[in-house]
Design goal:
Structural class: alpha/beta
Helix content: 25-40%
Radius of gyration: 19 Å
CATH superfamily: Aldolase class I
Strand order of the largest sheet: 7-8-9-6-5-4-3-2-1-10-11-12
Shape: globular
Mean pLDDT: 91
Largest sheet: 12 strands, mixed
CATH topology: TIM Barrel
Low-confidence stretches: none
């Protein structure tokens, strides 16, 4: 198992396939983009699948979520998913994406073995989308959601980040849209993971504010049928159900005590937390001819020293050097 000294066991692996992205979302990176990882530093498809295999067959990984950057930019994505789905025991396989290009690949991804999908959608207004993402691609994202649902990648989940003074008035319209189309919406508090290090707590729209906005238009009640467990989202029934809405309060209501996640960056580094300031290198073992057993032992040692929490609310907190696009969500 991938156990730490606080009794937590990592069973959910987040795999970043690339640090590259085709949007420039304001809460993630500057308008001009970032310096991407040089190609030789990025894990090959074979290396990614080998690490996943070790995690699944030897270390108790039960869920694999592919992230980025933007994972749809990875050309052999369908092949990586298919090889992951062929593992025994078969893990649950999901994908987090901005949706650009998903409409034409949703069926192929489903056929490869993808079970579920999360699509980022922060606004329904084209002019606000252009301001946030710095690209005019809102129609592509809406088409992606429809294509994902049609392909059976359900429940289709929508991730939304509200930013004060930009889209903080869209909580109700976003939920109404998702209810109309059968998507499950989750609001995520903006986290200090932007490349510019410009995050300010006072400017963050909190989970409590989101709940207050939604409660003015919808009846939200406790979701007793879905235990939160290690899931990051607190879910609520909307108007008595069965529709749900989720809120991920990573900053104001941390859930570190039940965290079951471990992350693998596109360049083969193990990270115990989005906000970790240290990493453990598996790529050098892969390329140095190390056997599976040695790689598994390095991975176990990395997880064993996981800290009790992310420390965002500690006065000594320092934002990680890598931005979200280089870590994987």
């Amino acid at each position: 198992m991938l156990a730490d000294s606080f009794g937590r066991v990592a069973t959910d692996l987040r795999v970043s396939l690339t640090d590259r992205c085709n949007l420039r979302c304001a809460y993630c990176m500057p308008p001009e983009g970032l310096d991407w990882l040089p190609a030789p530093q990025v894990l090959t498809g074979e290396e990614i699948v080998r690490l996943i295999r070790i995690g699944v067959t030897s270390l108790g990984i039960r869920e694999v979520r592919f992230t980025g950057g933007e994972p749809l930019l990875r050309r052999e994505l369908e092949s990586i998913i298919a090889r992951t789905a062929a593992l025994t025991p078969r893990p649950d396989i999901s994908l987090t994406t901005n949706g650009i290009g998903l409409a034409r690949r949703a069926v192929a991804l489903r056929e490869a073995g993808l079970d579920r999908i999360n699509v980022s959608l922060d606004t329904l207004r084209p002019e606000v989308f252009r301001k946030l993402a710095r690209r005019d691609r809102l129609p592509d994202v809406l088409d992606a959601l429809s294509a994902a649902a049609a392909a059976g990648l359900t429940p289709v989940k929508v991730n939304a980040v509200l930013m004060r003074g930009i889209n903080d008035d869209e909580a109700v319209p976003l939920l109404a849209y998702c209810l109309e189309h059968g998507y499950e919406l989750r609001f995520i508090e903006q986290m200090p993971l932007d490349a510019q290090h410009g995050w300010k707590r006072a400017e963050m729209v909190t989970a409590a504010e989101v709940f207050e906005s939604l409660s003015a238009a919808f009846a939200l009640s406790e979701d007793s049928e879905r235990a939160r467990g290690a899931a990051p989202a607190e879910t609520f029934l909307v108007n008595g159900g069965p529709a749900r809405v989720g809120v991920i309060a990573s900053v104001t209501r941390p859930f570190c005590g039940s965290c079951d996640r471990v992350r693998l960056t596109a360049d083969g580094q193990v990270r115990n937390c989005l906000f970790a300031r240290s990493e453990s290198d598996l790529r050098s073992l892969l390329r140095g001819g190390a056997p599976d057993e040695e790689i598994a032992e390095r991975w176990q040692a990395a997880v064993a020293v996981k800290l009790p929490g992310h420390g965002i609310n500690d006065p000594s907190f320092l934002q990680p050097d890598r931005p979200m696009s280089a870590i994987g969500g």
